[in-house]
Amino acid sequence: MKNNKITLYKLIRIFLVALTIITLSGCKKPHDKEISPTITNDDITITVTPGNTDTSIDYDVSKEKLVYDILKDGAIYKITNKASGRSLNMQLSGMVNGSTVIQYADTNMLDELWRVERSGDYYTIQSLLTPRNIAVRKNSDKVGSIIEVRIPDKQYNLAELWTFKKNNDSIQIISAKTNLTIGLTENTKKSSSLPQLLEFQNEDWQLWNFEEVNLQDELPYLLPVDGALFHSSCPEIVKYGDTYYMYIMAPNISIKASKDLINWTSVGTVFKGGDPSWLANEVPGYGIWAPGVYKIKDKYYLYYCISTSGSQNSAIGIAENVTLDHLSPDYKWVDKGMVIRSNTGDDYNCIDPNIITDENGDVWLTFGSYWNGIYQRQIDPDTGLLLEDNAKTYHIAKRFANNGAIEAPYIIKRDNYYYLFTAFNPMNNSYHNRVGRSTSIHGPFVDKDGKPMLEGGGTPFTQGLSELLMPGHASIFKDDDGQYYLVSEYFRKNSPSIMLIGTIIWDKDGWPISPLTPEITTILQQ
Q1: 3-class DSSP state for residue 169?
Q2: Which of 178, 179, 435, 465 sits at 20 to 30 Å (Cα–Cα) from 398?
Q3: Contact call for residues 374 and 368 (beta carbons, < 8 A)
């Protein structure tokens, strides 16, 4: 008598499971961790309220069986609409919670991959690009509501929980909150169409194919940053005590702070009383760009540059401080003037400064943009200015394509190699990062294929997506636990710059991989 009567076998199962739970509950102390409140055994649900002697038993013999045997708990899937052939995709989630989920053409990137995980009687669907779950937009219960991504709710809000029902060779995705189905309302293959919650009509537009994708265990991802995200151009991070500080290209140089690399607040500027007067004298109409803070001996030095777009009339300046704690009474940035400048006709352009100390303790300033590319000069560790005893300029990278468009150098040392990260191409949708490496601080830096960076070489490290544009000007941050991070910016159409932070992993040959490395799905396949 299917769905209407409880058989003797099921009554025995209810009795045995309930007896076990009641026995366990009676042995618990009031402060013990509670027994899981719901235990599902096929179509029988037993509910126990910890600390209450009135133990209730609920059963529902008509409950439909979930698709536990079809989707693997913790597996990675590409989820494609049966009718359109396009995949569920989230390219906006690096920005804010509430970014919409779309259908989109194949990208071979992490934005089209999802991890499906069991959560009690339900599942979560989490992006592989950044740890945010698919959820019902604004917790709506209305037909036509769209879906979004959000940081996981530790209380497992029903709006981000889902069930799956098999339909021939495809799967129906059902909201635990509304019992509505994710689907498309138009017979279209158009990219960026928004899936919605709909009454199920058994149409192909409401069904999805789950293709399992096997990737290696360690994967890079974008941090689900939140807070003061906008206006984050040319960012660099330094950690002081238990606080991360980010220095931003802006008038007076903006500073943001975080305790966890995820939640950010604005905490003022470097030049509180206004930019130093020498800046306008040296470069009229200047913009102040690419700040970065480095500890040399017992002081903290902030290097920055001033220029105007497309000009070699540029200079690199320096300020110093004894602490980075913006609440300390000793906190004060003191500008120390100009480090180096360039003029029209010089071989180089003095912007985008980066500082690194080599294995011998020598300090080097790397800089450059367009013209003949990227250069180095040695720094006096006692002053932060150019070392007078070494006037040699080292040339380490150059491009010939796109009017010589290379800039934003950043060097790190890892194991036996120095890695040179640079930005390629003009500031348009093709703007991205590349990397080369060398056993010497002065090069020659070569890419993964062995092409020297002085000959235009560079292995792609990031690329933009349709709604995540120009992830180019970047720095690299290494945390106390040894984890490296890509620290960058990106843009949406007609938006200001937006903060982007992502973990970096390393392949077996020691080359870095970011969450935005081109063809990353192919690279990371097992």
Answers
A1: coil
A2: 465
A3: yes
